[in-house]
Specification:
five-stranded mixed β-sheet, two-stranded parallel sheet, 25% strand, elongated, GreA/GreB_C_sf, transferase, DNA binding, Tscrpt_elong_fac_GreA/B_C
Length: 150
């Protein structure tokens, strides 16, 4: 008997839809990051309410992810004056070029906009440093010089 005659639908051969993965470790966020997560939850709740039957599962999956991120969020206190931490804007010198980044929570990260997550290797190298300090990075001793912290 042909497979076409015994199958109820094509959906049994489709890829399963998995939950969106959650990064291991604490969900550290800035106050702005928590507000962004809250706005995303509100947006997705509205999308679920107006979603068609076909789109509802995907919208619910996204909503579950953001609800989890919202409930597990830990707002980080501002770092000490002049010390690099989550929420800091840092200007640093690497290989003779001066660059600036802001260290934020994972969901708030946007490298193209100069926002890197605290889990990124560059952020891990910078956190805890102070202006004028040189830190190791990418296997090189004192590769980065901290120019300014705001």
């Amino acid at each position: 008997m042909s497979v076409a005659f015994r199958r109820e639908s094509d959906e049994e051969h489709m890829e399963p839809k998995f939950e969106r993965p959650i990064a291991p470790g604490p969900n550290l966020v800035t106050p702005r990051g928590l507000a962004l997560i809250g706005a995303k939850v509100v947006e997705l709740e509205a999308a679920v309410a107006g979603a068609s039957v076909e789109d509802r599962d995907a919208a619910l999956r996204e909503l579950r992810y953001w609800h989890t991120r919202q409930t597990t969020a830990e707002v980080v206190a501002a770092p000490a004056e002049g010390e690099v931490g989550i929420g800091s804007s840092v200007t640093y010198r690497l290989n003779g070029a001066e660059r600036s980044v802001e260290i934020v929570g994972g969901d708030e990260a946007d490298p193209a906009a100069g926002k890197i997550g605290y889990q990124a290797p560059l952020a891990r190298a910078l956190i805890g440093a102070e202006v004028g300090e040189r830190v190791d990075f990418a296997g090189k001793d004192e590769a980065i010089e901290i120019v300014a912290v705001a």
